């Protein structure tokens, strides 16, 4: 099984504003680190340009990251044990504090690519009902289900 | 308690400290040499440390040669990831730290936490040894020099909180280290976040003199 992860961020200003300029400039190096990270499988891209962000219908102020990883460790090491961490630390410069869960994970069969709508509904499920094997977080992690026979 | 008692023997303690400081798997010969004891004695104590849960053992080919004729794998030791906390009488700062970390995150109070950590770092500098490396060692960071002339930290003293609230723990840790530098008057050195798997997230580098 592979681990799918979706997270959203609420931008303080439009994407092309000076307030967000530092963040936009960091997209290319950080995406490069993700793409080359051990255990990285896939991420949703907004376009071919390095600064293209995920295109969606959930509101212009929302920035969405959506990716697939081989394991919890792979995603953890990219998120918190790489040059991604210093960027994450600056998040308040560009994004509002969100008081409810803004990140969700779930297991998917290898070789499949989940849809963005599915990710958003998993996040909604996490917010409504708390962590479960269908929608969980690093803090309330659920291991991959045992492979079924046949 | 048993784990701590296992470190009372000076040979055992020397072996433990040597293995912990290497940050990689260590063979019996190498450990014996470092501790200045016979190989069989070193092996005895190393296995006692495994029994006490302070070290982990495994098997690995230590030589350059591989394939047939390279000999069977040697027994090697690494420091166990599990931590041992002894407090008499019983205290539980861990639960309190985890609860407070979650509350700080929920309130978005990271910046305030970093300020407090910076102040704590300055205070710690005032009461500790005057040299940075010594001060870090005293606080459990296990500093070592990397190949690029920087100073890195092998141990994360806040490991339990860093597993649950990594962003907060690492930010607070960085602020603490920055406070420590300020308190020591180390103007030529900068602390920054440079995380790697299995190590502390903070690294120190000398400022470029212009």
From TrEMBL, chain A:
Superkingdom of the source species: Bacteria
Domain DUF3291: 3-140
Listed name of the protein: DUF3291 domain-containing protein
